[in-house]
Amino acid sequence: MTNKEKNDQYYLAILKAEIDKLKGEKNSDEARLKEIQDDKPVSSDDVGSQRDDRERLEQEISNTEDIIHEAERALSWAAKNGFVCAVCRKPIEHDRLDADPASLTCKEHRDEEDTIEI
Fold first, then answer.
1. Whole-angstrom distance, CA of residue 35 vs CA of residue 54
2. Considering the entire predicted model, what is its pTM?
3. Residue of 82, 114, 117, 116 lying closest to 101 (CA atoms)
């Protein structure tokens, strides 16, 4: 196994672990949201508090879903192509991958990452 293959396996494992962790967080938030929705408010203060908690959890779930999607997108790209820039096909710098293993671009093309169709 080459160093590149070892590095790719390392970052693939990190991405997979991150996706699993995020899915666990999402499941936990969804369970908590269900508890809140099933609770019967006792007072008008409880109604407001429940609404605030529900809105906060719904936003957290939505944000987590977005991050999961980005990580799964990067995992799919990396599994097919390795950790190379989706723009120029040069290897993505290790410090960039250390900071965000879901990166699809090198530092030079980081501003284009959100517009890339994979």
1. 10
2. 0.84
3. 82
More confident residue, 2 or 81: 81
Q: In this structure, which topology does domain 3-115 adopt according to CATH?
A: Four Helix Bundle (Hemerythrin (Met), subunit A) (1.20.120)
**Crossing angle, helix 44-81 and helix 3-38, to 10 degrees?**
160
State the burial class of residue 98 (Cβ atoms within 10 Å of its Cβ: 0-12, 13-18, 19+): exposed
Strand partners of residue 84: 91
- Domains of the chain by residue range: 3-115
Percent of the chain with pLDDT over 70: 91
* Res 80: pLDDT: 95
